[in-house]
Amino acid sequence: METNSVQQMTATGKICAKYSFVTGSGLFLFFFLTRFDPLLIIGTYYLVLALLINSVIFLLLVFTALLQPSAYRELLITAIIMLLNLPAAYLYFYLVMQIA
């Protein structure tokens, strides 16, 4: 795999992590402020969709890091950045379950 492809993968992973965090935080904040019950269903669908998309990208990053030792550091750093969303998602889910 070329360096350009590795750069595209890392950029995609970082963008995905950023938008997942921003969207999840927005949904949580909106629910927290309004207690709008339909957001529970929307949030659940979002959580499942984000988990699927982020998991696929995460696995691609890890497998590519294993197959491309020359770029493993850059790829694994991006994978770790993606993992940083997990504590936030868990916290939001826990708080919503306490509020609802």
Automatic annotation (TrEMBL):
The chain crosses the membrane at residues 15-33, 39-63, 75-95. Keywords: Membrane, Transmembrane, Transmembrane helix. It comes from the Bacteria. This is Uncharacterized protein. It comes from Pedobacter heparinus (strain ATCC 13125 / DSM 2366 / CIP 104194 / JCM 7457 / NBRC 12017 / NCIMB 9290 / NRRL B-14731 / HIM 762-3).
